[in-house]
Amino acid sequence: MPRIFYFRLILRNLGRHPLRTALTVAGIVVAVLAFGILRTVVDTWYAGAEATSAKRLITRNAVSLTFPLPISYLGRIRRTRGVETVSYANWFAGVYINEKNFFPQFAVDARDYLTLYPEFIVPPEQLKDFLHDRKGALAGERVAAQYGWKLGDVIPLRGTIYPGQWSFVLRGIYRGRDPKTDETNFFFHWDYLNETLKQGAQARADHTGIFIVGIERAGDAARVSRDIDRVFENSLAETLTETEQAFQLGFVAMTEAILIVVQSVSALVIGIILAVLCNTMAMSVRERRRDHATLRVLGFGPVRIVGLILGESLAIALLGGVLGVLLAYPAAAVFAAEVGTLFPVFEVSDETAGLAIGCAAAVGVLAALLAAPQAVRVPIVVGLRGMG
């Protein structure tokens, strides 16, 4: 029997109840779209950890990240064997116009910091202007585009951790080296912050939140971390040094309960797809008992009958899966625009797209296998009578 015959038969079966088929496909599209967006949320949560470098370590206060470290630690860290470059950064947490406008802000040791993060691409002239302006700032392309900032604009921030009104001049706009690079950051000079603190809050001056340590070889990370922490044992501010990835995953762990809920809902979506498709295939098989009995009389064996049911189920599942994935890309773009800089990188990955289509195909196979026994177990005589 030519294969084209089976394809035509499957297509005719799909067209017997066009409304039911269309509604089933629509249900799968919505479910796959939801699955894709939910999986992208999970991927985004881990994006910071995935974008880290194995040759960067983070040194922070061993008690908590909220406790600063003396800037005097810089020289001792730099002298540790295996350390190549050291920089430092402070979380600023200023408010731009109102509390809804959130984006990460850091006071940094600009020259060494940008050396440690080559994924931040800054035009040479802009970099020069930024480095030579005490009140200069550097912003990512995405955050600059969101607020309509241009080079030379004055960016006012109202301090929360560091109270007062702060003004910065935008001297540079960086872009990411690859799509996963965070383009929502706002950097300014730690020296400017420190000099201001010396005038009104001397106890908070000459401290920084973290040290970023660039090491010569990634394989030395554990040893260098131990050596740095050993230097500051029994000091007033003991340190905890870990890889940049471990540091980022620590923030992810704080929201682990949310991630579990999101992942559970994404798994539930797959169950919804299965239920919708199983219902459709079960109805189709019940309505076609006489057809299946006739085919068996003509010499179609159980394997061929199951193949027809499987083909129809897979066609519906894959059509809905592919359409759902195609819609996930513009939906993710709209979602990213709505949440602004809350999610620095929000793109549907190839892995998510492949997983969504793979799950749809698996559901199509499972739905067919659950419905097919009705077609092959019913006696031919009973099927021809249309009884059941």
Question: What can you see in these coordinates?
Answer:
- This protein folds into two domains: 3-47 and 256-385, no CATH class; 63-237, no CATH class.
- The protein is built from 16 helices and twelve strands.
- It has helices spanning 3-14, 18-45, 47-50, 73-78, 110-116, 124-132, 141-147, 190-200, 221-231, 244-254, 256-287, 289-297, 302-339, 350-371, 373-377, 380-385; strands spanning 56-61, 69-70, 83-91, 105-108, 120-121, 136-140, 154-159, 164-176, 186-189, 207-208, 210-215, 239-243.
- The strands form two sheets. Strands 1, 3, 4, 5, 6, 7, 8, 9, 11 and 12 form a ten-stranded mixed beta sheet that branches. A two-stranded antiparallel ribbon has the order 2-10.
- It is elongated, with a radius of gyration of 30 Å.
Helix content: 55-70%
| Category from helices, strands and their pairing | alpha+beta
Q: What share of residues are in beta strands?
A: 15-25%
Contiguous low-pLDDT stretches (5 residues minimum) are none
Number of discrete domains:
2
First and last CA, distance? 29 Å
The DSSP helix count reads 16
Gyration radius from CA atoms, angstroms:
30 Å
Query: What pattern of helices and strands is seen along the backbone?
Result: HHHEEHEEHEHEHEEEHEEHEHHHHHHH
Largest sheet: 10 strands, mixed
Number of strands: 12
Mean pLDDT equals 85
Shape: elongated
Short description:
The protein is about 55% helix and about 15% strand. It is α+β, with helices and mostly antiparallel strands and about 400 residues long.
